[in-house]
# Entry
Amino acid sequence: MTESRGAVPGHVSDLIPSATLPTVVFPMDQPTLICAKEFVRDLADGQSVDTVFEVRELTRRQKKNGEAFLKLQLGDVTGAVEGVVWDGVDHVMAVATPGTAVRVLGRFSQDQRYGRSITVRTVREAGPEEYQPADLLEAPPLPLDQMTAALEELIDTVQHPHLSELLRRLLGEGEVAERWRVSPAAKVYHQAYRHGLLEHSLSVAQGVSAMAATFPGIDRDVAVTGALLHDIGKVDAYEQSGGAIDLSDSGKLAGEIPLGYYRVRREIEEIEGFPAQVAQAVLHIVLAHHGKLEHGSPVTPCTREATLVHMIDNLGGTLGSFDRIEKALAEGECWSGFERALSGSAYFAPRGESHAAREAA
# Structure
């Protein structure tokens, strides 16, 4: 996975968005003073736009007359908006590669038929002095070292020697472990950012660990191992450049679940004396964690452990979607629009009321 030009070196979570930080920049033609970053969530109908976004996607389309135009997905830490380029297509394609920070000049509109979009007049690559990286790239709420420490602590609780060895081989050190720690958990819906897969897998495994003590008959070591490894196929299924995430060729051709099954099974076969029944139990979790055939699982959960991992995984993804949606709401908004991940809208109580309720409790 590669970083974009101007992307964040190191850990994005250590940076602070600029908010109202004044920045002197060199825009399209002459120097000007930008008082604040114009965030996606704050754009208003008819507003002139002159700010820096990261290119998340670029698609070349064709008008009815045969001429080309472009659709861009432009993003920042609060969300993404479509950008439409009617002129200078070849120039923009050369500049606006996914993962690149670009300076965009245009006009934002919000139409009932076509949705939210920016009609782009000019695009050029942004200089590093023109923006704060943390304004463009999302990051986990917890620092990387804190999540890594929690991961190591959880692995230490797995008592079964072969499962402990499996986790240390895949997630302890080495190329796969490093890629797993930096990979996103998804392309759009939840934890779609650097270190998102670590955040998601760790939270699912912690939830599974807690719930395993509540219900009898669950093999905790198998369930926790399966929870940590259930999405490991995403290290091969996704490619990321800055905040631009897409499926790799392997992800498109094979899919995340088969890739994960293959990687875990291959590692199991390298561990001498690995019990066949335990291997089968862990591999079933990887295969069944989406829960239904129509959701991409080749089998449905047939064990207590696989059922538990699927349920907590689904919960973690859904709550992760709430985090994404809340970041995109403008100041004072409580309701989102329709969200496919929720099959409806999301509601967030005003922060003042939530704070007051917590104080009262």
Q: What stands out?
A: The first helix runs from residue 89 to 95. The chain has three domains: 12-136, 144-321, 331-360. The beta strands are 23-25, 32-34, 48-62, 68-76, 79-85, 101-111, 115-125, 238-241, 244-247.
